[in-house]
Automatic annotation (TrEMBL):
Name the record gives this protein: Amidohydrolase family protein
GO molecular function annotation: hydrolase activity, acting on carbon-nitrogen (but not peptide) bonds
Organism: Marinimicrococcus flavescens
Membrane-traversing stretches: none
Pfam families, A to Z: Amidohydro_1
Amino acid sequence: MSATSSAGAAGGAPITLVRGASWIVAWDEEQNRHVYRRNGDVAFAGGRLLQAGGRFAGEAADVIDGRGRMVMPGLVNVHAHSADEAMTKGLFEDVGTPALHGNQLYTYSQLLEDDPEALAPCTRVTLGGLLLSGVTTVVDLSVPYEGWIGELAASGMRVVAGPLFREARWRAHGWHRLDYEWDEAAGQRAFERALAVLDEAAADPSGRLSGILAPSQADTCSPGLLREVQGEARRRGLKVTLHAAQTMSELDEMLRRHGLGTVAWLEREGLLTPDLILGHGIYLDHHPRLRLRTAEDLGRLAAHGTGVAHCPVTFARTGMTLDSLGRYLRAGVKVGIGTDTWPYDMLEELRQAILCARITSGDVFDVSTGEAFHAATAGGADLLGRLDLGRLAPGACADLVLVDLEDPAMRPLHDPLRSLVHAAAGRAVRDVFVAGRRVVREGRLTSIDLPAAAAALEAAQRRAIARIPGRDPWGRGLEEIAPRALPMD
Ligand SMILES: [Zn+2]
């Protein structure tokens, strides 16, 4: 694309220029991969990139000094929950339910009462943290609440809204048995509500919001509903995401119900498609913890073009991870990276994705930093069907991150992505642009009052903790259920 020279405008829109960036992570269209470029310009206007590398010949309305900076594409987070996860921060990191394979999902989450006042602060804390770590696109899977779409729009982020719905609810019976309470009519109503919310997202004037169909879990939705969802997704041209193969308890249940693991069951029901993204796709039949006698699920996912949203940190906290990121990629499975929950640092998540893969495989060569970075950018964007995201190429969305190469955590500087992922993480992110708008300036959010949101969330967590004895079957308080990291003196 050639630059115009008329008073710093491209098609009338003012041009922003990062002049002389020391490093650029640019997109090589022919090779379909990121490449480093040195000492070049990055220009954008009207929310789109004009140029990434080389000398920009036009005039810019806004010029940013790129010396000592790396310009890289904004990160694409394919799986997060903004409305509730942040509420549990600091509470349950050291506990799990032994009889449910050490998971916390089914028992501990039931201890916190829904709090309407916590929802918006939770969303702000989540999206604010992600922006500060260089995320420009997030798939937000939340039970929709009044004002949710407005919060997403106000964040300044590019958000793929996934309003959750399901037909069954989990009930942990006596903290040892997982029961399912089915209410298909309620599930249908929630599905219809989700469709209305998707309409709301699509109509948002910011142009940064889009939608994804998000039936909650493979074990809480009937095949009938999932087929309805698939039809609706085709009609709307949207993707579908579904928690599947995420815990060993889920696998127990699927084997009990169908005699099949989750992925084999989805295939049998005709639900494995290229438009489907599994969150988190850990317990496939080859996983060594399961001791199943087959290893066919990876081939199934590759053959159907079904993707996986890999969120290593939250699972690693309970001693679990998929086996292994490199193995999935070599099998031809499309993988994107998500944060699911806190610490809301996508670069930290990326580091853990690499470490978990290498520990699980016992192999330093299982996945490289470049491959993992691809998954966290263009790979995730591909899953979402957005070839204009996660890459710096002319015509792509102007979603980009400026990294401070002079931050001590980045030095000594030989390979900036390695320094960023393996050492500095979110600390070195200085500026973030979404659709050409600066939403992080010199390390500070311009769109979200993060301290105010954090204070409101903390107050909500305190209220929730006070109500735990009323929700625990034995009337216990938090200190008994999940003692602090150290005893109080
Ligand atoms: Zn999730």
